[in-house]
Amino acid sequence: MNHTTTLGHSTLKVNRIGLGCMGMSEFYGSFDEEESIKTLHKAIDLGVNFFDTADMYGSGANELLLGKAFKNKWNEIVLATKFAIMRGPNGEFLGINGKPDYIKKACDLSLQNLGTDAIDLYYMHRKDPEVEIEEIVGTMAELVNQGKVKYIGLSEVDPETLRRAHAVHPITALQTEYSLWSREPENEIFEVCKELGITFVAYSPLGRGFLTGAIKSRADLEKGDFRLGNPRFSEEAIKENLKFVEVVDQIAQSKGVSKAQIALAWLLSQNNEITTIPGTRKVHRLEENLGALKVELSEADLAFIEESMPAQTFGSRY
Questions:
Q1: What value, to the nearest 5°, has the Cα angle with vertex 317 and ends 298 and 242?
Q2: Helix, strand, or coil here: 5?
Q3: Measured between alpha carbons, how far apart are the two ends of the chain, in Å?
């Protein structure tokens, strides 16, 4: 299995298992800055160089955290951040903004929070329905020309939008949720990425932790955890979706590895370029996730997973 890939039409060489940093500042219950920084530094020691954040994670707190952790280490890493989802002073969600003025301000603020002079990969987090994709990508291209951004990406867009965007300025990466229980990208988006030479970056590859088997009921989630409001984590959905975990567990037991490692190895086996950014705050989970690079799934294993998985996931993604 290839352990590294080059993102799209860029010079950014990244390891295929990166690190999603969202949970270090919000969304998944309690967090500890010191522990997060320790995990970020350990990731670099273990050869991880691809880190993912967004300006809305912790309303800027996540970018500030990474700025602190990566001071004097920028030449060792590839950092992706995102714009478009607006937050208010108390963290309230204020909608999606893709207007040129907003994008430029958001970029400047991200650079300031991170304490760096250029963003390696700048994503549009979600598409503003009021603004044409050509205008959004045109503005992102200006940021590239100004040297504030090296390469650009999109998140959660349909194939037609991706094609239109790529016609304005090369898109380096497309980030979308993809895992054993979220397989929508297989329908068409994978083909378009391949055709245009865009790297597919899978977020939530462990089904927001569900595929690891750690969540057997709502009682396993801390108060304030955003999954409590997610349709896939209703008591009924959890019960139904445990069928996914059972299949993963069968393969994991037969190989003597963890369920997380099987879920990640399956994802990486879908093609040679696909990259993923499982999130964690803890060093032992980081080490476990990276262990997936050593897991070999045979054709028989992949066929078993294909045949045994439930036909559909109970509950929508959001």
A1: 55
A2: strand
A3: 32
Residue range 61-77, pLDDT digits in tens: 999 999 999 999 999 99
Distances (CA, A) of 50 to 80, 84, 115: 8, 21, 17
Residues present in the chain in total = 318
Q: Which of 28, 57, 123, 151 is catalytic?
A: 57
Active-site residue flag, 57: yes
pLDDT surpasses 90 at 28: no
DSSP-based three-state secondary structure for 75: helix
- Rounded to 10 degrees, the C-alpha dihedral 286/26/57/201 comes to 30
Reported pTM: 0.94
Closest CA to 82 of 48, 45, 118, 107: 107
What are the residues whose beta carbons fall under 8 Å from the beta carbon of 163, sequence distance 6 or more? 192, 196
Map out the domains of the chain with their CATH numbers: 4-209+258-295 (3.20.20.100)
